[in-house]
Specification:
Layout lengths: L4 H20 L11 E5 L4 E8 L6 E7 L2 H10 L13 E7 L6 H10 L7 E7 L10 H22 L11 E8 L4 E8 L14 H7 L8 E5 L22 E7 L4 E8 L7 H19 L4 E4 L2 H13 L3 E4 L4 H12 L2
Parallel strand pairs: 1-6, 8-11, 11-12
Antiparallel strand pairs: 1-2, 2-3, 3-4, 4-5, 6-7, 8-9, 9-10
Helix pairs in contact: 1-4
Length: about 350
């Protein structure tokens, strides 16, 4: 892998910052639920950092941009099946791993930079919903330089300067640039979360009249339609070399444990996400036509609920969120074991 000279300087700067953080060993002092937040004037957004490795697992820093933090909190508070964890981990990571656990592409970058590691290798990864974990691009390198420099200073404020943050009581450490004093300030404060932004789909009154004609039956359904399966499909290779994951769309009868419909969806078959969501609502309405309206539909997360909320409200169908969809999960986990 050939790196341009101007890009090499940025990569080397990033590795210098990562080594500085390694020297502090923040995983000895912070758990993955101790959050640090930094308001960036460059990117006009707030970034969150959590430190992994306190429990003895692999050491890393995870950087979440803006509303990505919601998925992290969902993951921390939910009981999602392991095959879906990649759907709730959108972030950039700075990893301190063994050579064997380092992505081949990252090993190429390290070799090209002329860096050498013994035991622990430093590398960087991009986790994006719907894709395999991948190495970071040069724009993400620039972003990581700014983020890690500022999170390093926040660690210093606690470890060397004695700043007190009551993480156990829900406080975070927040860093920002104060234009009045022309200084960066580190202040303990309650956790601030950005607004959640989900797509919603409204149905017409004519469609409401149509679906409410179907009898309501004493059945409960599970519906999965927004999460990706961690399965590599050769034709899903993107121009940048990454592989996109297919979406699992599945309807199950919760009481009987029977799968009523199961599809592997390639998002390239749709013009955009909005078209796919409309198609997924049509799929559900087709079931109402065949079996009647269920009393309740269980979905995986808040995003799924927001898509279906207007339809189910007008159809007088209860909706429940549960991180595990027992019937669907049992079938999919068994399927993946044999792949």
């Amino acid at each position: 892998m050939k790196i341009k000279e101007e890009e090499k300087k940025l990569w080397l700067e990033l590795y210098d910052v990562a080594r500085n953080i390694e020297s502090l060993e923040p995983w000895k002092y912070f758990s993955d639920m101790d959050l640090f937040a930094y308001l960036s004037d460059t990117y006009k957004d707030i970034f969150y950092c959590c430190v992994m490795g306190n429990a003895g697992m692999h050491k890393a820093l995870a950087i979440y941009k803006g509303e990505q933090i919601h998925r992290y909190m969902d993951l921390a508070n939910g009981n999602y099946p392991s095959y879906l964890l990649a759907n709730y981990q959108e972030c950039l990571t700075c990893n301190y791993l063994s050579r064997n656990d380092t992505l081949p592409k990252n090993r190429e970058i390290i070799k090209e930079l002329g860096l050498h590691f013994r035991g622990t290798w430093i590398s960087f990864e991009n986790f994006e919903k719907g894709y395999e974990p991948s190495f970071i691009n040069i724009e993400q390198v620039k972003m990581m330089i700014e983020m890690l420099k500022n999170f390093y200073m926040m660690f210093i404020a606690i470890l060397d300067k004695g700043l007190k943050v009551n993480f156990e009581k829900g406080e975070i450490l927040f860093r920002y640039y104060d234009k009045k004093t022309k200084l960066y300030l580190n202040t303990p404060q309650p956790l601030m979360m950005p607004e959640k932004k989900f797509l919603s789909v409204e149905i017409s009154n004519d469609l409401k009249k149509y679906i409410t004609k179907f009898p309501q039956r004493d059945i409960e359904l599970e519906y999965e339609f927004l999460n990706h399966l961690p399965v590599r499909i050769l034709e899903n290779k993107e121009k940048d070399g990454r592989y996109s994951y297919p979406i699992l769309r599945c309807i199950a009868d919760k009481k009987t444990g029977i799968i009523l419909s199961q599809e592997i969806i390639n998002m390239h078959d749709f013009k955009d996400k909005e078209e796919y969501l409309g198609n997924s609502l049509d799929k559900l309405i087709n079931f109402f036509e065949k079996i009647g309206r269920p009393k309740c539909i269980y979905v995986r997360d808040e995003e799924s609920m927001m898509v279906l909320e207007d339809l189910l409200d007008k159809a007088k169908i209860k909706i429940e969120i549960t991180s595990r969809l027992d019937t669907i999960d049992e079938v999919v986990e068994a399927m993946l074991e044999h792949m």
